[in-house]
Amino acid sequence: MATKKSAVADFGHQAALRGKGDAMVTYYLRLALISFRRNPMLTALMVVAIGLGVAMTMTAYTILYVMARDPIPQKSGQLYAVQLDNGGPRSRKAGDDEPPTQLTYRDAMALLAAHEARHQVAMYQVSATVIPADRGLKPFSIAARATSPDFFRMFDVPMRYGHAWDASDDARGAALVVLSKSLNERLFGGVDSVGKSVYLNDASYRVVGVIGAWDPKPRYYDVINGQDFEEGEDAFLPLTLTIGKQMSTSEYEFCDAGPRGETFDDLIRSECVWLQFWAELPTSAEAEAYRRFLTNYARDQAQAGRFAWKPNVRLRNVRDWLVAQKVVPDDARLSVLVAFSFFVVCLVGALGLMLAKSLERAGEFGLRRALGASGRNIFAQAIIESGVVGLLGGVFGLSLTVLALWALRTLFPAGMGRIASMDAPLLAVTLALATGATLVAGFYPAWRAMRIAPALQLKVG
């Protein structure tokens, strides 16, 4: 009876607003709030069902989104990881023709000297101990990258202060260093430290540059050592310098093609692969020309008696390289599929609740139709209610998503902490997903509500 009285009372208001779009939406929103207060438990169940589905879906999708995105979209089609088969079939499993992901020292130096690419870089990671000038600070270990000077230009590394070293500095093995933004803040409080000295291990290095904000995810230039999403290095050193100081790599050396030997000089002369090599090739023609160069280089090695197999080289750009190295595991894609399936189940549950609520309000809708409301008016009212439920479910789901990402950052290693984060676009996607999906789910109940025959309801009432 109260429902019918309310419908009659609102009829005059509805008639007065007819034809005024914004006012009608406000009117329907007010009716939605009245409906929610009338059935709080049913409304809460719908919001919780949608929120749980959204939270599970967005948590899984956020992880996949960060892992699968292009870390350098402006140049990902121009930067190529170089592979060269120096071990032949006996160094691989049967049926596997994939060359090693790193190069030997002799091959890396030969490719650098050839200068066949627009820019090229050979590099590896080393460990170093920083001895602060402030005696009140204790020495601490850092990861550093030994690299040729094109690294900064190729990978668009922004410089906050100073600049990188040049080819002449690298050739003479100058004791220079480029610091990360975080190490510069730790040692010098974030001020311009160019020209100052840093003690690494047992030697002094002059600071020539400080990197600005730069944090590619995934760390595409070094995804073969299980550190795809971990923080990058704190210092960058000239490659010639680290070779001269016999600083070994802190990552993996693969010696499937021959023994390593005991000393660093043995490693230099060995067939062990431990240096990563990248080439910048802006056009497809340059990439194809470089591929021919690599093939000819491998053929020359075979003619010299070093290789006893056909040339086997790979040249992959950033996107293909990340796929080949399976940076995004199949489990991540499967988890998103499972989460979306769960979301569909939640939506079906919400659809059932909406239908039940619509049937319960059949008398109210019939009376409105009898008092002059059109089927389109009833449909608009029902669909706006669905949208409000979806928006509330999205806000609830967003809260749960933020909580789940916080739990992932807290419970799992540092790499996960850098992945499990939500940005503004993902936040917008979350709310749009919840609202849009609920509108779709609410379409059928709204359609049924608009088709309620007023005469039958008046007869029943």
Short description:
This protein is α+β, with helices and mostly antiparallel strands and 461 residues long. The chain has helices spanning 2-17, 21-38, 40-68, 105-114, 150-154, 167-171, 181-188, 239-244, 264-269, 284-303, 318-324, 330-360, 362-370, 375-411, 414-419, 424-450, 454-460; strands at 79-84, 119-131, 140-147, 159-162, 176-179, 197-200, 203-211, 235-238, 276-280, 313-317.
Strand order of the largest sheet: 2-3-8-5-7-6
Could you tell me how far the N terminus lies from the C terminus, measured between alpha carbons in angstroms? Answer: 9 Å
Helical residue percent? 40-55%
Uncertain residue segments: none
Largest sheet: 6 strands, mixed, barrel
Give a count of the beta strands, DSSP E runs of length 2 or more: 10
- The gyration radius over C-alpha positions equals 32 Å
On the 0 to 100 scale, the average pLDDT is: 86
What would your notes on this structure say?
A hairpin with a 2-residue loop joins strand 6 (197-200) and strand 7. The model has no long low-confidence stretch (mean pLDDT 86). The protein is built from 17 helices and ten strands. Helix content is 54%, strand content 13%. Helix 2 (21-38) crosses helix 14 (375-411), helix 3 runs antiparallel to helix 12 (330-360) and helix 3 runs antiparallel to helix 16 (424-450). Strands 2-3-8-5-7-6 form a six-stranded mixed β-barrel. The longest helix has 37 residues, at 375-411. The chain has helices at residues 2-17, 21-38, 40-68, 105-114, 150-154, 167-171, 181-188, 239-244, 264-269, 284-303, 318-324, 330-360, 362-370, 375-411, 414-419, 424-450, 454-460, and strands at 79-84, 119-131, 140-147, 159-162, 176-179, 197-200, 203-211, 235-238, 276-280, 313-317. The chain is of the alpha+beta class and 461 residues long.
